[in-house]
């Protein structure tokens, strides 16, 4: 079950479409969908989580808490829409594109992909692009 929660004034335009897409990402990795909660928030909210749980006093676009067990993918994914907006400008991409990248990124972590080394980052970026391509404009 995939749920979307909002701690700011942001809202996904079509939750059902995003839910179907996230399910497709999980399925494409031969994993089983458990309970995944997306929490959209602002920088201050996510900074507080970053300090409280990770002892990092820095802004970030995403923090994910992985509760997966084996192939059952579950967790909480916190996304700062403020960071996503700024990153979209920095990377010269549309907000929606950057949001999809970050949303996919969180789930890909649960599927076992890392981003600590340069090689890991390269694999993660390729997987993000592959999963973004699964998002269908027309259903």
TrEMBL record:
The keyword Protease does not apply. Its EC number is 3.1.-.-. Its cofactor is Zn(2+). This is Endoribonuclease YbeY. It is found in: Cytoplasm. One of its GO terms (biological process) is rRNA processing. The lineage of its organism: Bacteria, Pseudomonadati, Bacteroidota, Flavobacteriia, Flavobacteriales. Gene3D superfamilies: Metalloproteases ('zincins'), catalytic domain. HAMAP family: Endoribonucl_YbeY. GO terms for molecular function: metalloendopeptidase activity; RNA endonuclease activity; zinc ion binding. It comes from the Bacteria. Its main location: cytoplasm.
């Amino acid at each position: 079950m995939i749920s979307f929660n909002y701690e700011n004034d942001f809202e996904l335009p079509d939750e059902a479409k995003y839910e179907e897409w996230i399910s497709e990402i999980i399925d494409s990795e031969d994993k089983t969908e458990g309970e995944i909660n997306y929490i959209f928030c602002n920088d201050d909210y996510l900074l507080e989580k970053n300090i409280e749980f990770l002892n990092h006093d820095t802004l970030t676009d995403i923090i994910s808490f992985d509760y997966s067990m084996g192939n059952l993918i579950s967790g909480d994914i916190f996304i700062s829409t403020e960071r996503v907006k700024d990153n979209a400008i920095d990377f010269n991409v549309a907000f929606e594109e950057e949001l999809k990248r970050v949303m996919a990124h969180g789930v890909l972590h649960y599927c076992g992909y890392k981003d600590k080394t340069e090689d890991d980052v390269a694999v993660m970026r390729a997987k993000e692009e592959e999963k973004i391509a699964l998002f269908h404009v027309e259903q």
